[in-house]
């Protein structure tokens, strides 16, 4: 234990040599290990301890709590977005091309420093997204993308608040909180119940917006590799590579969730599943493949058409896809 304590002390001493003195004494800013410990604990809880705790228990009904939580996240995101904007992006003090860190105590600069810390803190409140999945036994929602995205963000933002609380990197938080306003609004409406589903047709576009966000962050960060700007190159790579990683993780999720649905629908159509609907909604009397016909013939029953094709046809024609079922849940 003494060896570990000495290592921690040496690491903190080295990292503190270059810290921003304005945030040095702030909560969780003394060193990286408290944040790292919280992140590792989060991963252990949502992947191991939580599912084991819920293994023999019924899912919790958290409808009202989810509505209140997501509403609180919307309000929190709006507030952080406004604070970051008033710290420079709304006032015209910040440039998209190059924005060095201002280490002065000017009022707008201090406002941005505080906004940066609150953005860092918001990454911990987002852990509740996963905790609620665990308590509702929605373990299939706790994907690799979800855990990596939530588990790595507090540690990533910690370095920014520790050394560069302001300047070019705040574009990440500025854009991200805007997306979170829309995202948590969607979650809040979804939590209200099935009667809201007709207003939530835009989930696919929310995922696309998240990918566009990371492309914009990539371009904004990596442009400094080709221009002169008094901003640390290490943070350019740090932010840019995070955006690259998250973009491909979200792209994989998009492909698995939406492209898979289209592939299944196309396959069903190719097999004649969706053929045979008249304008009045009844099955036609015959098609070339003979799969659907007012009443199924005896030999077709033996071939499993009634057992398979009819159910699959209802599944796709009525639109009760896997995605819709997941949204309802």
TrEMBL record:
Keywords: Fatty acid biosynthesis, Fatty acid metabolism, Lipid biosynthesis, Lipid metabolism, Membrane, Transferase, Transmembrane, Transmembrane helix. It catalyses: a very-long-chain acyl-CoA + malonyl-CoA + H(+) = a very-long-chain 3-oxoacyl-CoA + CO2 + CoA. It is an enzyme of class 2 (transferase). It is a multi-pass membrane protein. Its main location: membrane. The chain crosses the membrane at residues 26-45, 66-85, 117-135, 147-165, 171-193, 205-223, 235-254. GO terms for biological process: fatty acid elongation, monounsaturated fatty acid; fatty acid elongation, polyunsaturated fatty acid; fatty acid elongation, saturated fatty acid; sphingolipid biosynthetic process; very long-chain fatty acid biosynthetic process. GO terms for molecular function: fatty acid elongase activity. Its EC number is 2.3.1.199. InterPro entries: ELO_fam. Signal peptide: none annotated. GO terms for cellular component: endoplasmic reticulum membrane. The keyword Transferase applies. Belongs to the ELO family. This is Elongation of very long chain fatty acids protein. It comes from Psylliodes chrysocephalus.
């Amino acid at each position: 234990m003494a060896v570990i304590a000495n290592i921690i002390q040496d690491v903190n001493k080295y990292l503190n040599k270059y810290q921003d003195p304005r945030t040095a004494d702030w909560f969780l800013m003394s060193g990286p290990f408290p944040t790292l410990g919280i992140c590792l604990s989060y991963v252990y809880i949502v992947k191991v301890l939580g599912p084991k705790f819920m293994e023999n228990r019924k899912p919790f009904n958290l409808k009202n709590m989810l509505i209140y939580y997501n509403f609180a996240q919307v309000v929190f995101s709006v507030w952080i977005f406004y604070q970051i904007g008033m710290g420079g992006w709304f006032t015209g003090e910040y440039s998209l091309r190059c924005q060095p860190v201002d280490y002065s105590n000017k009022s707008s600069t201090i406002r941005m420093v505080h906004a940066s810390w609150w953005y860092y803190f918001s990454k911990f409140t987002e852990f509740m997204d996963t905790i609620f999945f665990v308590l509702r036994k929605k373990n299939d929602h706790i994907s690799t993308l979800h855990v990596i995205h939530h588990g790595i963000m507090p540690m990533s933002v910690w370095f920014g608040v520790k050394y560069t609380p302001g300047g070019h990197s705040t574009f990440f938080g500025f854009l991200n909180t805007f997306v979170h306003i829309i995202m948590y609004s969607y979650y809040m409406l979804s939590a209200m119940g099935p009667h809201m589903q007709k207003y939530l047709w835009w989930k696919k576009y929310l995922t696309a917006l998240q990918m566009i966000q990371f492309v914009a962050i990539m371009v904004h960060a990596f442009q400094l590799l080709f221009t002169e700007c008094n901003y640390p190159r290490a943070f350019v790579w740090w932010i840019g590579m995070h955006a690259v990683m998250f973009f491909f993780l979200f792209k994989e999720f998009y492909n698995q969730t939406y492209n898979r649905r289209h592939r299944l629908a196309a396959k069903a159509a190719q097999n004649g599943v969706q053929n045979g609907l008249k304008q009045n909604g009844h099955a036609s009397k015959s098609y070339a493949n003979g799969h659907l016909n007012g009443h199924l013939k005896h030999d077709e029953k033996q071939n499993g058409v009634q057992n398979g094709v009819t159910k699959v046809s209802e599944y796709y024609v009525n639109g009760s896809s896997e995605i819709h079922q997941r949204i309802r849940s």
